Amino acid sequence: MSDEEPLLLDTHCWIWLQLGDLEKFSQGTIEQIRRSGATGMLRVSAISVWEIAMLESKGRIRIHMDCLEWVRRALETVPLSPEIAVESNRLPGSPHGDPADRILIATARNLGARLMTRDQALLDYGRDRHARIVSA
């Protein structure tokens, strides 16, 4: 995997990283994240901001500061462009039905990025080579 290509984090990976839950990542994954961060190639999708705000508002995650401030201090966020929105509904193969996951896949494809996740449905989709999806 090239350090010169973007690495897009699935929402749960971003949360683990921001909260310091590094033990949740598989061996070698943290080094990939560090290399991508050092080269300015680490990304999160705007849909992940929405997911985090939703989880925080429902009390499913706890952030020890204002949610918007937490997001602003985080990684570079990829906006939800019209191209990504349209592609999320035109993905090849049989992608996951979850709209947020479809947006993550479309974002990764649009950026030419690897998507890092622990979501088995996304990993299965990546095995069909419709997107570059790597295990966290």
Structure summarized in a few sentences:
It contains seven helices and five strands.
The largest pleated sheet is described as: 5 strands, parallel
Give the tally of β-strands.
5
Beta strand %: 5-15%
Text of the CATH class:
Alpha Beta
| CATH homologous superfamily placement | 5'-nuclease
CATH topology name, in short, is Rossmann fold
Tally of separate helices: 7
Number of domains: 1
Strands of the largest sheet, in order across it? Answer: 3-2-1-4-5
The coarse silhouette is: globular
The stretches of 5 or more residues where confidence is low (pLDDT under 50) are none
Secondary-structure element order, N to C: EHHEHHEHHEHE
CATH architecture: 3-Layer(aba) Sandwich
Q: What's the helical proportion of residues? A: 40-55%
Structural class from helices and strands?
Answer: alpha/beta
How large is the radius of gyration? 14 Å
Head-to-tail CA distance between termini: 14 Å
Instruction: Estimate the mean pLDDT confidence.
Output: 91
